[in-house]
Amino acid sequence: MADEITTTQAAASSERPSERPSGPRGPRPGGPGAGPGGPGGPGGRKFFRRKKVCKFCTEKIDAISYRDVRLLQGFVAERGKIVPRRLTGVCTTHQRKLSAAIKQARNIALLPFAARY
């Protein structure tokens, strides 16, 4: 009798009433990102993206000075915009200090607000 209860409970737990195909038309053939060069395709994974490391943390730079224009220019795009963290790899605390230093350097005309045309 105990065996009957466990087998019926196991059968009931394996069947999910809310099991539906993913998406409105069912699962995609090959899975997400499957293409000729995608991770699921015949070529396999081609590129390995290295995790970006904060330049200031690795070089142990604590203070970011607004007077260091050469350093700050590396974090400003051609058009004059501050480059975001996800592109530069700078950590949150240093990105805040960096943006404050760039704004300070702009205010005293060491860095331009916008690009020249």
Topology of this protein?
Blueprint lengths: L1 H13 L40 H4 L10 H5 L11 H4 L3 H16 L10
Number of strands: 0
Mean pLDDT across every amino acid position: 78
Fraction of residues in β-strands: under 5%
| Major sheet | none
- Radius of gyration over all CA atoms, rounded: 27 Å
The H-and-E topology, N to C, reads as HHHHH
Distance between the termini: 85 Å
Number of helices: 5
Helicity level: 25-40%
Apparent shape? elongated
Structural class of the helix and strand makeup? mainly alpha
Low-confidence stretches: none
Short synopsis of the structure:
This protein is mostly helical and 117 residues long. It is 36% helix and 0% strand.
Q: Your description of this structure?
A:
- This protein is mainly alpha-helical and 117 residues long.
- The chain has 5 helices and no strands.
- The longest helix has 16 residues.
- The protein is elongated.
Provide the descriptors you would attach to this structure in a database record.
117 residues, mainly alpha, elongated
